[in-house]
């Protein structure tokens, strides 16, 4: 019998799945300083209880999936900025990100509404650009000498550390570069094949990829969304969804329309709140005609979105509005 991974099981059980919202900006709202190279990963080291609290609140507010606080926790970044002497400690911090989210899920589901599908924990693997700290996660402006193997090596340690826990799925997030997408596909397929050959392996785990785009047609590096879809379409055994995150709210529907045109996979979407972020000043500003997640979300669903949530500057209250609008639609 073919093993069914948890993400596929949840997709089969609900038409619309509610994803959580921001971690880093929510920690800021709670008084934590995340203005450093490690972003919310620094709180994993210094204040892990706060990470747990955010995960728990998202589940309490209707999320079906929470994403670990490992977006910025690349091995290389932890070694350079986390006051760690070796890779073993860095791997421990990454595993902690999963364990905190899993504990929040398990604690909440002891008292959850009967019949509500058990929530999932997705392990966040952020892009190489997030490690650079230059805003390159939005542009894909990487060192041109970087090879596919270099990018695979960069992502490997964090991916393996997450998979060493009871994680339910992997979220490759904010990917702005087609070359990086190729590296991720190669790496995850290789790791999945290795796990399938291991008689002591944990259960099957699948992934989604969410892209970082500059408009409704192109990734941050100028590669086409069409090309990204065609690549993922060839590897649906391990990749169960493709989508977009950390994008301006008002272009979301158009991006999804492009994705929906080139793939039949369920789409995942979690845009920013509607405010604009300046990667140079690291500050947010709100436009006068700012829309809302729940107000825009019907258009996402019409264009193939199945997993919906929020990214930067979204909070549990925003996710609760999505849950009330769509979360019980099964």
From TrEMBL:
Hcy-binding domain residues: 5-326
Keywords: Metal-binding, Methyltransferase, Transferase, Zinc
Cited InterPro entries: BHMT-like, HCY_dom, HCY_dom_sf, Hcy_S-methyltransferase
GO biological-process terms attached to the record: methionine biosynthetic process; methylation; S-methylmethionine cycle
Molecular function in Gene Ontology: S-adenosylmethionine-homocysteine S-methyltransferase activity; zinc ion binding
Signal peptide: none
Superkingdom of this protein's organism: Eukaryota
SUPFAM superfamilies, A to Z: Homocysteine S-methyltransferase (SSF82282)
Cofactor: Zn(2+)
PANTHER family given in the database record: HOMOCYSTEINE S-METHYLTRANSFERASE-LIKE ISOFORM 1 (PTHR46015:SF1), ZGC:172121 (PTHR46015)
Residues bound to Zn(2+): 246, 311-312
Protein name: Homocysteine S-methyltransferase
A Pfam family that the UniProt record links to this protein: S-methyl_trans
């Amino acid at each position: 019998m073919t093993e069914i991974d948890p993400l596929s099981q949840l997709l089969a059980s609900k038409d619309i799945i509610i994803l959580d919202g921001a971690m880093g900006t929510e920690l800021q709202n709670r008084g934590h300083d995340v203005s450093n190279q490690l972003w919310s990963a620094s709180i994993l080291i210094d204040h892990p209880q706060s990470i747990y609290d955010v995960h728990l609140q998202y589940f309490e507010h209707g999320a079906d999936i929470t994403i670990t606080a490992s977006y910025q926790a690349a091995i290389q970044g932890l070694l350079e900025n986390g006051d760690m002497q070796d890779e073993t400690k860095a791997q421990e911090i990454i595993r902690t990100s999963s364990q905190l989210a899993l504990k929040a899920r398990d604690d909440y589901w002891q008292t959850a509404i009967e019949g509500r599908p058990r929530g999932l924990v997705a392990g966040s693997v952020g892009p190489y650009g997030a490690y650079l700290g230059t805003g390159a996660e939005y542009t894909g402006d990487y060192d041109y000498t970087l090879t596919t193997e270099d990018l695979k090596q960069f992502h490997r340690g964090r991916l393996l550390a997450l998979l060493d826990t009871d994680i339910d799925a992997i979220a490759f997030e904010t990917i702005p570069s087609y070359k990086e997408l190729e590296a991720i596909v190669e790496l995850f397929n290789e790791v999945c094949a290795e796990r399938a050959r291991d008689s002591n392996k944990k259960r099957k785990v699948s992934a989604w990829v969410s892209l970082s785009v500059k408009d409704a047609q192109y990734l941050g590096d100028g590669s086409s969304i069409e090309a990204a879809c065609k690549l993922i379409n060839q590897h649906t055994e391990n990749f169960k969804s493709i989508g977009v995150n950390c994008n301006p709210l008002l272009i979301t529907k158009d991006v999804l329309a492009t994705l929906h045109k080139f793939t039949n996979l369920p789409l995942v979407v979690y845009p920013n709140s509607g405010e604009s972020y300046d990667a140079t000043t690291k500050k947010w500003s709100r436009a006068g005609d700012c829309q809302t997640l729940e107000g825009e979300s019907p258009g996402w669903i019409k264009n193939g979105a199945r997993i919906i949530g929020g990214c930067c500057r979204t909070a549990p209250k925003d996710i609760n509005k999505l849950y009330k609008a769509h979360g019980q639609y099964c």
